[in-house]
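Our working data are protein records whose layout never changes between entries. The record below serves as our worked example for the rest of this section:
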Amino acid sequence: AYTVRESTVFYVRVPAPHARFATDLLCEVVGQPRLDPADVEIERGVILGELDGALDTPDDVVFMNLVEALFPGHPIGRETLGDPQSLVAMAAADIAGFHDRWYRPQNLVFAAAGALDHDEIAKTIDAHFDGRASGVRPERIAPGEALGSDKSAQRPIEQAYLALGWRGLTATDPDKVALAVLNHAFGDGPSSRLHEEIRERRGLAYEVSSSAASNLDAGTQTVYCATAPEHLDKVRRIIDEQIEAIVTDGIDDEELAVAQGYLTGSMLMALEDSSSRMSRLGSAVLTHGRAIPIFESLESIAKVTTDDVKRVAERIFGQQHVESIVSPDGDEFDDDDED
């Protein structure tokens, strides 16, 4: 199981002859979990340890703080692991009440892929959930327009970690595919502009990247780099220069072709794995309310033009952004406000 900002996912992967057993087991876990207080205490300790580990990891901290600054006061800006105070205060009865309210058919999507019989899987699921109240969908409140302040923290480390963030695109935005093309050319991969300029040509950082994430009500666009503290200002200037260049001039035809080839190839190769197929189906139904045929996704990549990429670059990078830094102890940044 795992949790992301807008969903919790439970899954099993078994040999095909055991599909019926696995479906029964998954339905029991999701529909009738055993929330024994003793088990809750054990899991509480596990999650608190996981949170401590994240707070000890600079590249986790820099993004925790960045998302909080992008969506101040909104649930989407919270760390999915929670915080120590809420984790300690949460009782088994609270968890049971939350489950009873929200883990209802209205809020569930089942997806399956592999050597299985659709009708048999559906029949098994129906046997577990028929007769249960369908429940209600949670009320969705989109984030406000205001951004928070820049964030900085210190840790006993050697490098400085920098993350820049802009409000991105929602999961249903028609420019989402153009943004994926933009990111591949700009900072997602060894042939990208940021990688070539900052790592390959100047040797200022081992890791530099850009990426986008989309949810139903909001999205993020980020640029990330880990570098020596004395290089931080120079790296920031180079990032600003590269952003200005891609907003002003867009990308060229070769960059477009490389990005489209990469995105197409990645999508097709993911189809070789049944878990990827399952995730793709479930995510599409959660987001769009339907399974999206692969040809439709491939066509959307092929239709992206350089003009589309330039437009989405202007749209994203033309906004105000926020900055998050995690630097070594004793560095000039001393506003450790994520604790």
The domain at 2-129 is CATH 3.30.830.10 (Cytochrome Bc1 Complex; Chain A, domain 1). The mean pLDDT is 94. The two ends are 27 Å apart (CA to CA).
